[in-house]
Design goal:
Layout (H helix, E strand, L loop, with lengths): L8 H22 L6 H14 L3 E5 L2 H11 L7 E5 L5 H8 L3 E5 L10 H7 L4 E4 L11 H11 L2 E5 L7 E3 L5 E3 L6 E5 L13 E5 L2 H11 L3 E3 L2 E2 L10 H11 L2 H19 L5 E2 L14 E5 L4 H10 L29 H9 E4 L7 H15 L2
Parallel strand pairs: 2-3, 2-4, 4-5, 5-8
Antiparallel strand pairs: 1-9, 6-7, 8-9, 10-11, 12-13, 13-14
Bound molecules: pyridoxal-5'-phosphate.
Length: about 375
């Protein structure tokens, strides 16, 4: 059996090695290292894949979120709502810009932002909502967009884990993750569902004016060369990464199917076990399984992790500490117990190996090891 990893980038690369190497070689041969060439090609291919008007490539997913907030012109003191059970980047950029992060609880079943909690958090200072499509499944966007419209709020989707996931609105419209709100952001970090060989990210929008603003913010606040209209940043996807992404985008649907196969295998083995809760599906969204995350019921998580580790099976806790409990984000407004669902999740979640190269032999070995421990 092949060794089991959380993410197996090496085996994935072996299958596309010739095209990836040729793409990188082409960048070197043409010396278009920044902008132009491969970056433009990839941008247009992704626009087509997502059926979105503008893809603006940037240096990473965190930059994408920051640039989105800057382009919307939010000002210090403006409140931005984000779930407390997520990766730190979402709240980090809000804080860096001097905006006020307001955290809310999540839904126990889907791990995504709780609509009830979101409604309660809106104040006259609220300016934007950043829902995170956690683990590869879209948040309840129909409700979120309705609430945003009623209160005149901007919405920025954090689609760093959900590229390729599709959401169906009640009128039957199907829209890709990250393309439902005014702005969407994604990351091409190597382990993400569409990952490059370093850092990368992108911003999506259907709004021409906003796209122009986003491009300018990402390019030193510059519209006409060497004339700076506002304070921007320098954030670019480089051509080598675009060359890798151009190849991998062609396989994204295949990659998603492989992840869904692994998830279905896990589901079939774990469903009905009273110690394990399998990931719930939002009926309006497909799930692209950036992570396959179990909720443990009366199971010693650290002991299970050790049992698996002894058998050569990695398993990770995403995420062990909620935003409102992080040292850097201590805030007199929040204390332990304020977001009971998120806190409960951070104590009971466990993510199993999930990637495009898992075979049934490995899946059988992993599921047998988990079941042996929880059924003992
Ligand atoms: C990965 C990730 C980010 C940040 O992406 P980087 O490219 O690492 O900066 C932001 N939000 C979420 C939910 C992520 O998973």
């Amino acid at each position: 059996m092949k060794p089991i990893q959380m993410v197996d980038l090496k085996s994935q690369y072996e299958k596309i090695k010739d095209s990836v190497n040729a793409g990188i070689q082409e960048v070197i041969d043409t010396t278009t290292f920044i902008k132009g060439g491969k970056v433009n090609e990839f941008q247009h291919q992704l626009e087509k894949y997502l059926n979105v008007k503008h893809v603006i490539p940037v240096a990473n997913g965190t930059d994408a979120l920051q640039i989105a907030l800057m382009a919307l012109g939010l000002k210090p003191g403006d409140e931005v709502i984000t779930p407390t059970f997520t990766f730190i980047a979402t709240a980090e950029v809000v804080a860096l810009l001097g905006l006020t992060p307001v955290v809310v609880d999540v839904d126990f079943d889907t791990f995504n932002i709780s609509i009830e909690s979101l409604k309660k958090a809106i104040t006259p200072r609220t300016k934007a909502i950043v829902p995170v499509h956690l683990f590869g499944q879209n948040a309840d966007m129909e409700e979120i967009l309705k609430i945003a419209k009623d209160h005149n709020l901007d919405v920025i989707e954090d689609a760093c884990q959900s590229i390729g996931s599709e959401y169906t609105f009640s009128d039957g419209r199907k829209v890709q993750s990250g393309c439902m709100a005014e702005i969407g952001c994604t990351s091409f970090f190597p382990s993400k569902n569409l990952g490059c060989f370093g850092d990368g990210g992108a911003i999506f929008t259907n709004n021409d004016e906003l796209a122009a603003k986003i491009r300018a913010v990402a390019n030193h606040g510059m519209v006409v060369r060497y004339y700076h209209d506002f304070v921007g940043v320098n954030s670019r996807l480089d051509s080598m990464q675009a060359a890798v992404l151009e190849v991998k985008l062609q396989y994204l649907d295949e990659y998603i199917a492989a992840r869904q196969h692994a998830a279905a295998y896990y589901d079939a083995k774990f469903n009905g076990n009273d110690k394990l809760i399998i990931p719930a599906r939002n009926t309006a969204s497909t799930h692209v399984f950036h992570q396959y995350t179990l909720k443990l019921v009366d199971v010693d998580r650290a002991a299970l992790q050790k049992h698996l580790s002894d058998k050569g099976i990695p398993a990770m806790v995403y995420y062990p500490v909620c935003l409102h409990m992080q040292k850097a984000y201590q805030d007199p407004r929040y204390k332990e117990g304020d977001f009971p669902v998120a806190e409960q999740l951070s104590a009971c979640v466990l993510s199993l190996p999930m990637h495009t190269e898992l075979d049934d032999e490995q899946l059988e070995y992993i599921t047998a090891a988990v079941l042996k421990f929880v059924n003992k």
